[in-house]
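User: Quick one: structure for sequence A, then sequence B.

Assistant: Sequence A:
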Amino acid sequence: MEENGLQIRPQLIDVGANLTNKRFAHDLNEVLDRAEAAGVQHIVLTGTSEHSSEQAVGLAETNRSLLSCTAGVHPHDAKSWNESSRNHIRKLAEHSAVVAIGECGLDFNRDFSPRPQQQACFESQLGLAAELGKPVFLHERDAHDRFADILKAYRDDLKGAVVHCFTGNKKALFNYLDLDCHIGITGWVCDERRGTELRELVKNIPASRLMIETDAPYLAPRDLRPKPKGGRNEPYCLNHIAAVIAQLRGVSLNQFADDTFATTSEFFSLRI
């Protein structure tokens, strides 16, 4: 994008990238270089288990200006949650690189963990976030009603809440906004097959509640050309996702980038 003959690079923050995933093991430095070249100023690494949260903290320590992370246990792994898990996540969350508790929540789509254990794990992490004064990074799939009921019971005690990778319907969106949640949008919005409803709904999210993310290595934007090698999503793709959302919202890419940068920085207390 150009302004007065000068190339303007948008400033972006990726609020969800799984860079501890083994698919990045061989070229992580190049992945980070590509991200920065595309205008990604900061990346929040996602912790999805005790092990990956520990890895995320270690990786974030290597480049604190570019990286921070969450610490938590995904509902898929809720069956492993116990008091020791809570203590481990609590200890990790004391690190300055950890800006939120999560990824936590409910997933009734795959049910990799029994639903009662998912709910117990979710509630325990919400309580931990409230205790530590940290926001939560949330996962919900096919579980909106129960998820919203649990979240509502804790919401007043939480510093903040972002529903990561939102792909729900209009009812779910407005319920989350009524609960004073932020909304994370991924490359799902770039999929003409599955993202049709989301492309309309994204216009209704206030700029002060909207964040963007890649969820790398998952959900590579379907309309991105050239296609990412091997279908692997990377943080550099955030530039394309931002451009698509900006167009849908009828604003310039730079304005959209500025808005999401300010919103995200405030939510995670980032000093960039």
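Sequence B:
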Amino acid sequence: MSVSLEQKSIGTADVFRAHFSEVRNLSMRLTEPFSAEDQMLQSMPDASPVKWHLAHTTWFFETFILCPHLRNYVPFDARYKYLLNSYYKRLGGHPQRGARGLMSRPSLQEVHAYRSHVDSALLATLDELSQEVLQLVELGVNHEQQHQELIVTDIKHALWSGLLRPEIDSHSGPRKLAPRLSWIEIEGGIHMVGHDGNGFAFDNEGPRHEMLLQPFRIASRAVTNGEYLEFMSDDGYRRPELWLSDGWDQACTHGWNSPLYWERRDDGPWREFVVRGAETGTKEVDSDEPVCHISFYEADAYARWSGARLPTEEEWEIAAVRMPAKGTFLEDNILHPQAAIGEAFRQAFGDVWEWTASPYIGYPGFRSAPGALGEYNGKFMCNQFVLRGGSCATPASHIRATYRNFFPPHTRWQFSGLRLAK
């Protein structure tokens, strides 16, 4: 993802230094509960070891900012340019994505030293950087915030893939009850969609453009576990008429009969796997919490079953920009979606990413940025669907109504849920 270089000033160096340090320190606090062995796990090619996330986000600052823009900068280890590259082909290649879990070296201690080396060099020269380079630093900070969410989702999948899944208690305190689902009317007509250029945005959020929408209704909150259990009880996973063809094949091939991380013993209650720092295990499914860890195919099948549909990303955005909304974010340190509170339009931001019916493509007039950073977004505009709104693992300062997340339709390990439309 690349930042538009037409942005206005991003603030004083002192303000920016504080934000940079806050984000970098949060990554370290987020990973502190996990052992060096935990941080090396890679449970599938789509996920990465926690240690790799810490190193790669540091590589980003060194590769795109320090090496080309800081005179006399000495790289921490010249071999890291190749070793920690994710997918930037123009930089000369990178290791196979699925082999990141084989990197016992550098050690976690060396990765921490690498972060300190890069942070010290960047902070020492921050006052001397041009506005254009500071915008690249801001891009790096937002890039790290994306990886903070991936740290949570990837370590969750890695620990779930192990054999130890003790039962743990739900959070103490009064149980939150989800409000009844209601429908919000949105008028048709020509609406403006996309980022307006004020503040940071990734390049795939623009250009801002007009969109003709028909009148529609959108649900006041995300679909809950209790509602999804009704779909499951009505043989939702065994009725091909509800499923897209490829989704049905995925469900049959992988034996889907519930969201990812759900399990059931005999006729007992459904339980789901959660990670709360170093504490991991299964808790009983709360019927009022938003359903999460479902694929686009499952979200689409549920919507058909319920007599509704998924919103398009434009419909979602038009609804989200005008309604009061708040949710659960990474900073809350709950790392699990919570039940909605109140009426009106809730949970647009935080708790669960919401699948939309929109394929991930460029907006009218979209052009990838020049150079290696142009590979961040544009080259992934194929075979993926857009999700909106952020999740309980998304930093609160990172999300906005125009933010476009995207994943292949079969993926389930992210905190992904759904909101209905009609």
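The longest strand covers residues 353-359. The first helix runs from residue 13 to 31.

User: Thanks, that's what I needed.
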